[in-house]
Amino acid sequence: MPDIASIIEENFELVSVKPTDTPDGMEGGGWFCYEIAQGTNTIRGFRQGTRKAVTLAAEEIVDQLNERRLGKRARAELAKAKAAKTTGKK
Length: 90
Prior knowledge:
By secondary structure, the protein is of the alpha+beta class. The chain has helices at residues 4-9, 51-69, 73-87, and strands at residues 13-20, 31-38, 41-48. It has one domain (4-87). The protein contains 3 helices and 3 strands, in the order αβββαα. Strands 1-2-3 form a 3-stranded antiparallel sheet, with helices on one face. The longest helix has 19 residues, at 51-69. The mean pLDDT is 84.
């Protein structure tokens, strides 16, 4: 069994984006399967679109997952920056 602490320390990363058949219950063509990994953990998702669009969307998911791993620090700094921008205060 892998060491949980070592898995938690690893970043999520986009492993692959591959064309796939239309998933059950869905319609249309142009589907891709993307895989995101963190150590031995794997997330597999499906998205319709161009390879470029699906890759960009999956990379955004990876970024969000890695931000969540760090806790709310990244979001707190973002909130402070937005508040300063709207109020004119730093």
